[in-house]
What we know:
363 residues
Amino acid sequence: MTLWTRRIPALALTAVVLCGGSLFAADPAKKSPREVASFGTLRTPEPEAVKAQAQEWLKSVGKTDEATMKQFAAVWATDRSILDKVAGTFVLGDANAAKLLDEARSPESAAPIQTPPLLKDKKLSEFFRANLALAYGKALSNRRIYEESLDIFRQIKPEQVVDPATYFFHKAVSEHALMLRPEATESIARLLDDVTDSPERYKMVSVLMAFDMVTWQDKDLGWIARKMDNIQRRLELNRGGQATQKIQKEVLVRLDEMIKEKENEQKGQCNGGNCPGGGTKPGNGPASGNTPSNPASDTALPNGNGAGSADAKKIKEIAEVWGNLPEKERAKAMLELTRSLDPKYKDAVEIYLKEIAVRSVKE
């Protein structure tokens, strides 16, 4: 049994609780999953204790002047989260930390491609490194820079930070977005099972992510849509390199496979069924050579089920001339092809057409 399947019941029960449902009484003779396997209870430390630790760090870096201490008091007088207050303290005491967080939060800054050296410097205190890393990783996650965000979270432990709920939540968000289902499931389970003071918004979004992952099927149209979302996200981050091209190839290969599967399925309907000239099986439709009144249902992509179907043969026909079509004709063809498709699959069809057109030119 996989970690994923073991975790589903616990997540489902948590969802019932969060949504206001009721649970049956547990059998006292059996230990609950929480008792059998737990990584330990985590919670946000008391604010005064964290404030004292932050102030001690500020003094350790020589920032004891009156102006800095007034700013420190102002930061801790706000109603911001514990993590934000700690990060604000780091900004006061370390110019490099201030620059790092400013770049991570600014939508105008380029997405980083590696972990900053400041977060790996073992000479610095664990309190500073771990919590600066958490604030930095959270900022990257908020900007949908999930790869580097996840790299950051993997380098710290929840026991090292002042806000373990934020650690597990944003780690799960990054893992979910990158389609790392077992890892996301584990992070969500830790958030729901082990962190005793998780905010309700974290719990609800985490349960929604868990239920979303239950519906995932390998290499169906939903899989393609999630891949396309990642391609679009990476292009928006100016990451059109090999990693993005690899994802694009995966989508194109799968679209090719789906079309071939459908073509083979159509051929199989007549093999041994006495369907010369492209007609249907006897008794299942019009006579040989006649055009069916509703051919679209026979050319739906796998899992199309009518809604979200597309004519595979038509796609290939248009693909052959796509490179030579004027812009208006392309728009018209796309509208025709994707009229009955879920909008999220439109990009997948368009990129497929472009790739096929490029292939035909090369050939």
